[in-house]
Amino acid sequence: MRKSTWTVITAGCAIALATAASPQQAHAVRPAHPGPAATAIEALTTSDPVAAAAAVPADFADVSGYRPVLRNGMLVNPRGDCSSPVPLPGEFDAACQGHDLGYDLLRYADRAGEQLGPWARQSLDRQFDERLHAACAMRPDDVTDPPPSDRLKATFMRLGGTKVAFGRAWCDAAATAAAAAVGANSWRQHYGAPRPEPITACAVGSGFALLAGAAAAHRGRAARNDRGRAARGVRSAQAVPA
Fold it and tell me: Of 51-65, 166-180, 223-237, which has the strongest mean pLDDT?
């Protein structure tokens, strides 16, 4: 596929992702008489993890095939992961597992005939977004040598740089990309029960474009910092008396 074609696809997908990721407050209405799944999702997105665990339906494990566990202060699906067309930071794992649990509760409700409405999936996606950025907040501002386990290292190396800032800002860019992709998929599925869909050119193109942009931005910032240090060095040298 020609570069210009990918550019058009990526630009169009970026607009679609931004639209889909915008808040949908008008639909975020809780049911007056919530059923078991609605009660669990409400607790999962607004309460502490112990209270959320107590709210999980008694037959959830039988229906879904696992019991939720506590991990990093979150109630999660222990078998979940970050299913993404591009690699994501390891810090996102617990947030992805928590989001997977929420989506399994959506599927549980769908099988039981419990009508939830858009608020449930919107609440789970909003929590996912917040948790991703909270995970990024734990990273230093400027990291140029990520740990070997960092799955994004190879991706950024391929994007054209042997030394890229792997700090908080690019982590936030990855979080924004992941949350936007999730929001776009929810919008496409009308905020109902999640359905499997193939990875599309839109998802791959947009994801790599956002990550490439983050890498380029940090290379530019590093270059500006180097020029600034060099200029300060020259001024300091000129200020030394002969």
Answer: 51-65
